[in-house]
Specification:
single chain, alpha/beta, Rossmann fold, 15 strands, 4-stranded mixed β-sheet
């Protein structure tokens, strides 16, 4: 099978490319290399595998003609290329729309025009559910909690795009679903929660788990926006890739479906009140922080209800939050020179 990974030099993409190449798959990476760390990830893949093990195309998803030409012999598309930060979307909404909404449309159209009906997996986001202001949230000592959603938020929860990022990713989400209905393309949507792991060059606006670890290791200042009790469900990269494999292996049964994919209730953590002790245990010293205002669209809590993915894909997260954070911390320490550069 010939895989096309858009954003294949990014954090998730490079990890998936590595997995695919390790099992002998034919892979084309499509990436414009605009994100910090993508060149490092591409160098890592080139150093790990023999010359010619994969094809690299330096391209932008806004380039419909190049995408259409690239798609001609593709069997499976994993669409990861995107603008990833809410804060950036607020500052540059047109660019955010063109990359996330128009870029996803370009991918879908290129797939349709190829006539090959490639399977398409789209990496969406929990931000399509908006700020979720209507939920009753309970404030506890170190975290927020849902009063009524003991299993987390399911795919049946109402969409409420909030922020330009939520709108653009939500547009791609809905287009991907509809191309299965209207054009019979075998597509599946993953509304992903907080994904973390090695090869993640996180920064303050996106990839907070990696950013906190990188900042702590390098002694850089950390700002906590809000009160630090915001809760996210964390999913380690290997578990996400297992879900990708399961969906693509069962695409005939899951075409047109949407899945909330995250760590679920067993892998939730408040972004600082509960993360701080874990990080200080690893570093062996206190970590000072600055305080900032709440950011637009910041959910006080988001936890995925992953029961549908468990049922349809026979999938469950295997890596606990503490184990995953320890793995990422060790990788950052071992690769400190990458971040110092």
């Amino acid at each position: 099978m010939h895989y096309l990974i858009t954003g294949g030099a990014g954090f998730i993409g490079s990890n998936y490319v590595h997995r695919l190449l390790s099992r002998g798959e034919h892979v084309t990476i499509y990436d414009n290399l605009s994100r910090k760390g993508t060149i490092r990830n591409l160098e890592w893949l080139n150093a790990t595998f023999d010359t010619g093990a994969f094809t690299f195309i330096q391209g932008d998803v806004r380039d419909a003609a190049l995408l259409t030409a690239t798609m001609r012999d593709i069997d499976i598309v994993v669409h990861l290329a995107s603008q990833v930060a809410v804060t950036t979307s607020v500052l540059h909404p047109r660019e955010d729309f063109e990359v996330n909404a128009l870029g996803t449309f370009n991918v879908l159209e290129a797939a349709r025009l190829s006539g090959r009906y490639p399977a398409i997996l789209y990496a969406s986001t929990n931000k399509v559910y908006g700020g979720m202001e209507g939920l009753i949230i309970q404030e506890r000592e170190t975290r927020y909690a849902y009063r009524d959603y003991v299993h987390g938020i399911s795919e049946c929860y109402s969409l409420d795009f909030h922020s330009p990022y939520g709108c653009s990713k939500g547009t791609g989400d809905q287009y991907t679903r509809d191309y299965a209905r209207i054009y019979s393309l075998p597509t599946v949507v993953f509304r992903q929660s907080c994904i973390y792991g090695p090869r993640q060059f996180g920064f303050e606006a996106q990839g907070w788990v990696a950013w906190f670890i990188i900042a702590a290791v390098l002694g850089k200042p950390i700002t906590i926006y809000g009160d630090g009790k915001q809760v996210r469900d964390l999913l380690y990269i290997d578990d996400l890739l297992n879900a990708y494999d399961a969906a693509l292996a069962n695409i005939g049964h899951v075409t047109g479906q949407v899945y909330n994919v995250g760590g679920g209730v067993d892998n939730q953590l408040s972004v600082w009140k509960e993360f701080q002790p874990l990080l200080e245990k690893l570093t062996g010293h206190p970590i000072p922080t600055d305080k900032g205002d709440w950011r637009p669209g910041d959910q006080r809590i988001y936890v995925s209800d992953i029961r549908k993915a468990a049922r349809d894909l026979n999938w469950q997260p295997q890596v606990s939050v503490e184990e995953g954070i320890t793995r990422l911390y060790n990788w950052v320490v071992e690769n400190r020179a990458l971040f110092e550069q």
